[in-house]
Amino acid sequence: MTGATMTAWPLLRRTAIFVASVLVASIVVFAFMAVLPGDPAQVALGVNATPELVEQTRQEFGLDRPLVVQYLDWVGGLLTGDFGTSYVTKEPIGPQLVDRLGVTLWLVGAGMLIALAIAVPMGVLAAVRHRRPSGVAVSAAAQLGVAVPAFLAGIILVQIFAVRLGWLPSGGWTPPAYDVGEWLRGLILPAVSLGLVQGAVLTRYVRSAVLDVQREDFLRTARAKGLRPQAALVRHGLRNAAVPVVTVLGLQLATLLVGAVVIERVFVLPGLGSMLLDAVAARDLLTVQAIVLVLVVGVLLVNFLVDVAYTLLDPRLRRS
């Protein structure tokens, strides 16, 4: 069997698992929303609506059809990019979802870049100098950062850099197409709030992975052949240390997606999190259903990419 075939089969298998997981997730999300108490037509019309008007609205929403037909119609719309029409605002959900998703992706992407910029050098430093004061200080700071919630970090940063110093805005969102400078200024504080906490978590995992690699025989052999410890670690150790870190990175990306919900509220960002909370407050179940599915598919996609990266990083998985 050729190397290309050895690489293709695990990827195909993981792709099939991903597609099946998305299908199961759509069924679970739809079923969960279907069993929630309350009539969306009644909620949309108010408590004073007549039974005849409620029944007419149920027919307009398609709620009088069997659940299987409703599910197939919903999934069929999703495949064509149609997320349906809001029960409350009577507006298409898809365009709103795309706009809000862009805000959330910018926030999560910037937060993860900040987390990696903190975790990789600090984790390696803590591992290389783990018995020295600098390494102990980095480990202590990481432990403290893990204990701080992202929303609390955001509030502290707002108090310092927005209220007292006035360097950055305390909230709001400017699309990058309108003004790149204002967009960056508005993104810094929420992204740093997410990145600091996740960077502290990743720092501990990077430190642990690098410490484990430093004890391996191949690294001692590289040093015995004349490579300096730092050069041996960079050339032969970091790739092996990246394998367990990639798994944690995928979990942290999923955590960032969920954490963005709170951060968007703190900084008044029009992302998916704010849209979800507004839809829950208005009992707009179809909008909630669409947002929850997007978040679940996002988490599944991250896990799928982690599996692919795992296969590419570790040749043993390709051979198996």
What does this structure look like?
It is a single chain. The longest helix has 38 residues, at 229-266. This protein is globular. The protein is built from 13 helices and no strands. The protein has two domains: 1-88 and 283-320, no CATH class; 102-282, Orthogonal Bundle (MetI-like fold), CATH 1.10.3720. It has helices at 3-35, 40-45, 51-61, 67-79, 93-128, 133-146, 150-164, 180-214, 217-224, 229-266, 272-282, 285-313, 315-319. It is mostly helical.
CATH secondary-structure class of the largest domain: Mainly Alpha
Instruction: Determine the CATH topology of the largest domain.
Output: MetI-like fold
In the predicted model, the low-confidence regions spanning at least 5 consecutive residues are: none
Strand content: under 5%
What is the structural class?
Answer: mainly alpha
Distance between the termini: 12 Å
Radius of gyration: 24 Å
Q: In one word, what is the shape?
A: globular
Number of strands: 0
Largest sheet: none
Helix count equals 13
- Written as H for each helix and E for each strand, in order along the chain, the element string is HHHHHHHHHHHHH
Question: How many domains, as an integer?
Answer: 2
CATH superfamily of the largest domain: MetI-like
Q: Which architecture of the largest domain per CATH? A: Orthogonal Bundle
Mean pLDDT: 76
Task: Provide the helix percentage.
Answer: over 70%
